[in-house]
Amino acid sequence: MPKQLIIDGKAFEAEDGITVLQACEQAGVEIPRFCYHERLTIAGNCRMCLVEVQGMPKPVASCAMGVSDLPPNRDGTPKQIMTRTPMVKKAREGVMEFLLVNHPLDCPICDQGGECDLQDQAMAYGSGGSRYDENKRAVEEKYLGPLIKTAMTRCIQCTRCVRFMTEIAGVEELGAIGRGEDMEITTYLERGMISEMSANVVDLCPVGALTHRPWAFSARPWEMRKTESIDVMDGVGSSIRIDARGSEVMRILPRNNDLVNEEWISDKTRHVADGLRTQRLDQPYVRRNGRLEPASWDEALAAAGMRLKDTPSQRIGTIVGDLAGAEEMFALADLMGRLGSRNIDCRQDGAKLDPALGRASYVFNATIEGIEKADAILLVGTNPRLEAAVLNSRIRKRWRQGGLKVGLIGAPVDLTYACEHLGAGPQTLVEVAEGRHPFAKVLAEAKHPLVIVGQAAARRADGAAVLATVAKIALAASQGKDMGATAFNVLHTVGGRVAGLDLGIVPGEGGMDTGGMVAAAGAGKLGVLFLLGADEIDMTKLGSAFVIYLGSHGDAGAHRADVILPGAAYTEKSATYVNTEGRVQMTHKAAFPPGAAKEDWTIVRALSEQAGNKLPYDNVTVLRKAMYEKAPRLAWMAGAGAENVSGVEKAAARGGQMANDAFGAVITDFYLTNPIARASAVMAELSAIKRNAAARPAAAE
Amino acid sequence: MSNRRFHPEQPANFAFNAENEAWARATIAKYPPGRQASAVIPLLMRAQEQCNGWLPEPACKLVAHMLGMAEIRVYEVATFYTQFQLSPVGSKAHVQVCGTTPCMLRGAEAIRDVCKRRIHDEPFHLSADGAFSWEEVECAGTCANAPMVQIAKDTYEDLTPELMDRLLDGFAKGQPPKPGSQTGRTASAPAGGTTTLKEAALYDGSTVGGWRVKFDERIAKADAAAAAAAAASAEKK
């Protein structure tokens, strides 16, 4: 039952179950706070949110007071909540004074300066000066891992970081030891934290106690140009904000997006920023006499274009990489189509996903937000914690609410929530599909069952058969539940894949797929291999094929290449990406590509002239128009879900024999999954730490 | 209060002895499934008792594993409650001197000075022979017999510096005095003997039913007065 309140003199109808703070917030009244955070449990320990409630003798912590707990007035009139009375002002000034008693006055050398909650609120709600002239408390520094720089003397003990690690990240490493003034945030014996989400605690920290170590002392928030964009490090497509100064991306922060990442991002998304500065391809190269030599754009394009023109179309192959945007994929596919080549594939890992079956057969139909409705989840050949850390925390969020059963078929992994390991491979999958396994009953009885299939299952040689079995399980589980296609969910691990499938970048009739092209190149049957940022294939097996590499980083592909065309990274172009849900999103240009590098689609366009088949788009608007004609779904920005179930049905109808070997792991090293991450020193350090940490207990045993 | 941390020197490992192990299992079983973590304080206390009065780090780790808790959560508990001693304490006695107002008013500071002189200048430090250590604590609840100290589970009350010296001597010799008041009084009976309810008759049984005498007397007096009044009025007539 909604509750009538009078907030600062204005009548307000508060829905049941919210807190006084939320009611004030909804009524447009700002309440200062430090410990309260809408996505964490309520602690009520900072006392900054005190308000006056009619009939209560003392100020009330509004974050911890539910509106339904307010006793009614005796005469039945609505309760008055006052936030601008002298009592509240005095209470806020008092709390602020206490918080500042032990907070150092080191704002000029603090990295949080300029975006510090304590600074802002001290200005807004504090008293003018200080009455305190005793010694301040000093706290020893703590080691919280390589990403988090600590200045624990600044800590105001809000415990947001402790709650985040325990509740959202699901890694109980951080705690508050001691009591009272001596309370300190630390890990057990200062061993640091290992989590894919750990750097989010820095965003949560309302003061400068936790700051980002990799960016320490490099920039002030007001110096940076902020660009809202999209992350492509994994299939989630988290909303990010890119902060750049001059031509350099200084840092990447999460943006609030309830549909996708709430307000978390993984450590890889955030700290890959230094990888955007190193190992960059900043000018074209052409291989002469076995050595890659710097060349001009004209030379490089001529060399590549001549090869494309002179090679018979069936001897041209194209492999599209994991980070490519839809624009360049479309332009390149268009060019190859015009040249008559059918050997093209966007599935670098050989996943047996076929866009011809329909969109529902290759996206995460339930949507990430839809996970919160699920009451049974079957994971097949996937480790969401590494493959999509933010999505994993959404499953954990649902699990914490209770009533969620999770089963896993594949390699056993720690997922931060209780998960029943059903089996390792297709045998168990068949048991579930045929209803012989107890988990089949769980799925059948669930109101909203989800089956999430990972690339470890899809990329196998028998991937089509595995996907068909999974689709059958999903269809059986959703029978009579009015779920559409939402029971069948494909979890992608890379940012560019779904857009590639949407554009139909798979081998044409008689064309070769990734494996086929690599084999053909090795056997000398492929003259030219075009790699659009494709680095995950085995470059040693490409034989004598002439390799054209278009990409942003000097990784495996560039080392093997005969012509290198330097492109832009995702922070340097406005490109369309589709996340694993099928949500179409666009990145925005936060900085210019380094040196002579250009936006990828313009390179393809320039190359098309040299290859003798000029693409008919002069600007990105015309290109997008053509792209939307080919794949109309790409024009539907930001929406996801509601795919036609026929895609799943068609996927289920695909037959084939499944091998018996267990599902493997797609990601063995979370921090080094793509060329940008591999160029990042921070990611390399994290990877080494994680490897050593994994080796340690084994050595102890 | 100071920062509470694990002692830098720790034993390599810790295990409950058979008796404590059985006790710990029984204690854990008292709580409903999924709520085993509630047993953390009793288990830590038992571990502390087994380790001569202090709590080593391997014991915390063991308790965490026994209860399925994260180690940091047990560490939080162990550092929060000052009853857990995180560094070694005296082998013969760890003296907890109450310094709260009633004891302070009755001379707790002099008791503390004895500890400083005889044990160590600083709290939580072992005496030279390792037999004693001391700390100042908040109210231990025998305010009527202030000042007091607590050693292990016993309290020693009504202390003076001399009595405190004698107390420590007793512990040093392995013959601790009887717990309770050190001046010989029972519980918190008045110091220096009773001041009220002293008549011997109160205790020899002669007063049993004494209340009735008063009533009988009053009734007799009233009856006599009534009879006298009746006689007087009869005479008038």
Task: Indicate the topology.
The complex is a heterodimer of chains A (701) and B (237).
Chain A: E1 3-7, E2 10-14, H1 20-26, E3 50-53, E4 60-61, E5 79-82, H2 86-101, H3 117-125, E6 148-150, H4 160-169, E7 174-177, E8 184-187, H5 200-204, E9 210-212, E10 225-230, E11 239-245, E12 248-254, H6 267-271, E13 285-288, E14 291-294, H7 297-310, E15 316-320, H8 326-339, E16 343-345, E17 376-380, H9 384-387, H10 389-400, E18 405-409, E19 420-423, H11 426-433, H12 438-445, E20 449-453, H13 455-458, H14 463-477, E21 488-490, H15 497-502, H16 514-522, E22 528-532, E23 546-551, H17 556-560, E24 563-566, E25 576-578, E26 584-586, H18 600-610, H19 620-630, H20 646-653, H21 675-679, H22 681-700
Parallel strand pairs in A: 1-5, 15-16, 15-22, 17-18, 17-20, 18-19, 20-21, 22-23, 23-24
Antiparallel strand pairs in A: 1-2, 3-4, 3-5, 6-9, 7-8, 10-11, 11-12, 13-14, 13-24, 25-26
Chain B: H1 18-29, H2 40-50, H3 57-67, H4 71-80, E1 93-98, H5 101-105, H6 108-118, E2 132-137, E3 149-151, E4 154-157, H7 161-173, E5 180-181, H8 210-236
Parallel strand pairs in B: 1-2, 4-5
Antiparallel strand pairs in B: 1-3, 3-4
Helix pairs in contact in B: 2-3, 3-4
Describe the structure.
The complex is a heterodimer of chains A (701) and B (237). Chain A is 29% helix and 16% strand. Chain A has 22 helices and 26 strands. In chain B, helix 2 runs antiparallel to helix 3 and helix 3 crosses helix 4 (71-80). Chain B has three domains: 18-80, NADH-quinone oxidoreductase subunit E (Arc Repressor Mutant, subunit A), CATH 1.10.10.1590; 93-181, Glutaredoxin, CATH 3.40.30; 202-236. In chain B, helix 7 links the parallel strand 4 (154-157) and strand 5. Chain B contains eight helices and five strands. Chain B has helices at 18-29, 40-50, 57-67, 71-80, 101-105, 108-118, 161-173, 210-236, and strands at 93-98, 132-137, 149-151, 154-157, 180-181.
